[in-house]
Design a protein that fits this description.
This protein is mostly helical. The chain has seven helices and three strands. Helix 5 runs antiparallel to helix 6 and helix 5 runs parallel beside helix 7. The longest helix has 16 residues.
């Protein structure tokens, strides 16, 4: 496993703080050296999705097992874990926010992939000041295109637009 500092592909060179204060340094690097932000977000989505099938007591074991199989740096691993744990801590508030705007589609009726995408995006919109709202929405729609059904992108976009 390649254990290096977390660095994320972007067009600027500014450094920003990510979830729980982990430093994410923006700079261009060679192919395969580090994860892109969208790849990090996809891994967080997968963890949130997997969390739907486990009890809260099992989440730490699931997190550790998942991160063992992901090729990433220690800092990327810490960032992914911190953001996942943040979502788990705020899940009640996140679901309440979703339920307030999802007319006829309470979280219990939603597809598991769409719900995981919404939870990640709402967390980023409400609790992660380093992710602009428009970026959180756009990335959620991209995840919905990749992992959801045909109508998922429009559904996810509609819910998040009401929360923006």
């Amino acid at each position: 496993m390649n254990l290096q500092r977390l660095s994320v592909y972007t067009d600027n060179s500014a450094a920003i703080r990510g979830a729980k204060g982990y430093l994410l340094e923006d700079r261009k690097v060679g192919k395969g050296d580090r994860m892109k932000r969208s790849e990090i977000r996809e891994n967080i989505f997968k963890l949130v999705f997997c969390g739907e099938f486990h009890t809260s007591n099992e989440l730490e074991d699931q997190l550790n097992a998942y991160l063992e199989d992901v090729e990433c740096t220690d800092q990327e691993r810490s960032y992914i874990a911190a953001k996942f744990e943040g979502i788990c801590e705020k899940i009640t508030e996140i679901d309440e926010a979703i339920n307030q705007v999802a007319k006829g589609w309470k979280t219990g009726r939603m597809g598991k992939a769409e719900l995981a995408i919404l939870r990640l995006a709402v967390y980023e919109m409400k609790y992660d000041e380093d992710v602009p709202v428009k970026v959180a929405i756009n990335e959620a729609v991209e995840l919905a295109k990749k992992f959801g059904g045909d109508e998922s992108p429009a559904f996810v976009n509609g819910i998040l637009a009401k929360l923006a």
